[in-house]
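Appendix B.2, paired examples.
Example (i):
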Amino acid sequence: MATVTGSGVADEAGPHTHEPERDRVAPSRHPSTAVLADAGDLLRALAAPVRIAIVLQLREADRCVHELVDALDVAQPLISQHLRVLKTAGVVQGERRGREVVYRLADDHLAHIVVDAVAHVQEGKQ
């Protein structure tokens, strides 16, 4: 299974095996059009490299904006813009602590989507 290190890079912890689709816990066999639309919105919210990097950072620990700026070497206004998109999509939640807002992932499932996507791409490049 792939893990993400402090750098946000997936490392293999042994041979990677894929579960057959039928063995996974899956959503209902025929999701409604509304559910499919919401899933598409969620995937679009995750579909930017900076947002993927933010999710990987938040997978490790809760972070405030300046920590994300330092870790990702991206300008503060851009980080804030991407956090707004992720917050609107329900990917992250913010909690005000004094003068700062600390962000965290709303759900661990979202980190798995990103980690699996990164691992899939890395496997294809090896």
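Example (ii):
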Amino acid sequence: MIVAVGIALSLFILALVFWMLLTRRLREKYAVMWIVIALSVLLLGIFPQLLLWATALLGVQVPANLLFALAITLLLGVSLHLSWELSQAEDEIRRVAEEAALSRAEIDRLDSRIAALEAQHRGSGADSAPPA
């Protein structure tokens, strides 16, 4: 029963990831990670003896301990990757905000210069206008 649930879960994850890719709700670089996870779960669901083999190879006494250790390592890796992505995004947001502030200051400076030129033009145009 648990094998069928694992296989169904991995197939569901694969279908969901491909759907999210097709609808542009998930970027490719994140999809790769989820596809690898889903395929790993599918392999362990189809061939549960792989977990027993890996447990014996690594000297772990209980296969569930190996599975939990791998899951924790994966979660730490995902957390580290997302922290790195967040840091990159914060740097980009700060840079764009600074550029927007500089652009806004330049626009304000040009607006005030245009207003001064228009006022100067109106002032000189009123003196030279013929009386009606």
